[in-house]
Design a protein that fits this description.
about 475 residues; Serine Threonine Protein Phosphatase 5, Tetratricopeptide repeat; DNA Cyclobutane Dipyrimidine Photolyase, subunit A, domain 3; five-stranded parallel sheet; 5 strands
């Protein structure tokens, strides 16, 4: 048997548009896949609960796809350098290939593995499967990382259209002669312990999602057919199916950004939507790119204020308020609807993400890191770059951040983007009988209207835990401490 190639999967759990897989096939050697659940290497952030659920099912899907093509997905756990080193001792491999990661701790691990493999006289190469543009490819004229989105995106687009997806390996079989890797031990998927058990809280996730490569293609096709048209205006409406909802598949690499970019462009060329819709959708992919470029340049993005002046901000310590926010019991219907959607489905509409984040930070004066951690644990698309960059954007502490005085009014946001209250009724059923003109501020309804809707404030639905105007004034006062004159 020829010495096989070890293909190390990470956040690229797909066969199509997978450059490392293509390079493995181009070698002419048999290919065996590997996934390592690495919770031991220093500083690697463990996945949250919802992301672990997605990972389990995405790995099952990938393993089945590889098996249909004659090879296996080995599952191991432990520090990556130790696992790969052990495998090199178990079988004579010719190369170890993978697609790149961009978090500092992951880069440290990958560099150590590459050094070890090459020291053994083997080929070790990495590729870009996750980004449209590499972080070092889009820089300011001075050669520095760019810190404002609009000029970043202009520079990225000016550098050329993102490459087309690499030729799909999905039609190539087999990847290896049957049975050649049976001697290599693999953990059963359940042994990774990725699924919730006691209690099993994932019922809503199972109802909502189909993790894996086929599910990604199915969702992309539905978006292009039904939702890309009108995206530029409709994407802010949580009461309508107007966004792609591709983020969890993209997070785990069940689909790549190049695939999405070019499929959307092709759909518009065929008349499926306007160029304005396409530009807005591409710009949303651009914000993901910008977030990864920031994370690559500023590794502490999820832990430290990007703008140091916010280190002096007087965050409050209020566990009951944090718990009310987490449970969707703030008394502000749009905020509560978003947080309940998150708990049930592991996902939240982007407009509502901004509103609930603003409420935590500015209405409650709770540290943005508390919200980032909650999203990290409950989102199926919890992304190390986008999650951190977006929370800091709302807080005003990040790169190209919203001004701190931009405080989302959850009442007006609801009235503008959920005008009939359908989104609130879906996720806050105790308000289902409320008329549209008061559903976003039920405390303003007359006793008769509340009674007719079956709502008893403080009993069936909470009263607001903070007054909007008072909270806004408190936040603006706190902002003074971040100004240079206060230091």
């Amino acid at each position: 048997m020829s010495s096989p190639v070890l293909l190390w999967f990470r956040d690229d759990l797909r066969l199509a548009d997978n450059p490392a897989l293509e390079a493995a096939l181009a070698s002419g050697q048999p290919v065996v896949g590997l996934y390592i659940l690495d919770e031991e290497s220093p500083d690697l952030r463990p996945l949250g609960g919802a992301a672990r659920w997605w990972l389990h099912h995405a790995l099952a899907d990938l393993a089945a796809a590889l098996e249909r093509r004659g090879t296996r997905l080995l599952l191991r756990r432990g520090a990556a350098t130790e696992v790969v080193g052990s495998l090199l001792g178990e079988m004579s491999f010719s190369a170890v290939l993978w697609n790149r990661r961009y978090e500092a701790a992951a880069i440290t691990v990958d560099t150590a593995v590459k050094t070890m493999v090459r020291a053994a006289g083997l080929r070790a190469d990495s590729f870009n499967a996750s980004l449209l543009y590499e972080p070092w490819a889009v820089r300011s004229k001075a050669g520095d990382p760019m810190k404002v989105f609009s000029p970043f995106w202009r520079a990225a687009l000016a550098s050329g259209e993102p490459p087309s997806p690499v030729a799909s390996a999905a039609s190539r079989a087999p990847l290896a002669p049957a049975g050649h890797f049976d001697a290599l031990a693999s953990l059963p998927l359940v042994a990774l312990g990725l699924l919730p058990a006691t209690p099993d809280w994932a019922g809503g996730l199972r109802e909502t999602w189909r993790p894996g490569e086929d599910g990604a293609q199915e969702r992309l096709a539905a978006f292009l057919d039904d939702e890309l048209k009108g995206y530029a205006d409709g994407r802010d409406r949580p009461d309508m199916p107007s966004t792609s909802r591709l983020s969890p598949w993209l997070r785990f690499g069940n689909i790549g950004p190049r695939q999405i970019w070019h499929a959307a462009a092709s759909a518009v060329e065929q008349g499926a939507a306007s160029h304005r819709d396409l530009a807005k959708f591409h710009a949303e992919l651009g914000w993901r790119e910008f977030s990864y470029h920031l994370l690559h340049a500023f590794p502490d993005l999820a832990r430290s204020n990007f703008q140091a002046k916010f280190d002096a901000f007087p965050w409050r310590d209020d566990p009951p308020a944090l718990a009310a926010w987490q449970r969707g019991r703030t008394g502000y219907p749009l905020v509560d609807a978003g947080l309940r959607q998150l708990w049930h489905t592991g996902w939240m509409h982007n407009r509502v993400r901004m509103v609930v984040a603003s409420f935590l930070i500015k209405h409650l004066l709770l540290d943005w890191r508390s919200g980032e951690e909650w999203f990290w644990d409950t989102l199926v698309d919890a992304d190390p770059a986008s999650n951190a960059a977006s929370w800091q954007w709302v807080a005003g502490s990040g790169a190209d951040a919203a001004p701190y005085y931009r405080i989302f009014n959850p009442i007006l946001q609801g009235e503008k983007f959920d005008p009939q209250g359908d989104y609130v009724r879906r996720w806050v059923p105790e308000l289902a009988g409320m008329p549209a003109d008061v559903i976003h501020q039920p405390w303003s309804a007359s006793p008769a209207r509340l009674s007719a809707a079956g709502v008893r404030l403080g009993e069936t639905y909470p009263r607001p835990i903070v007054d909007h105007d008072a909270a806004r004034n408190r936040a603006l006062a706190a902002l003074e401490l971040t100004k240079p004159s206060a230091s």
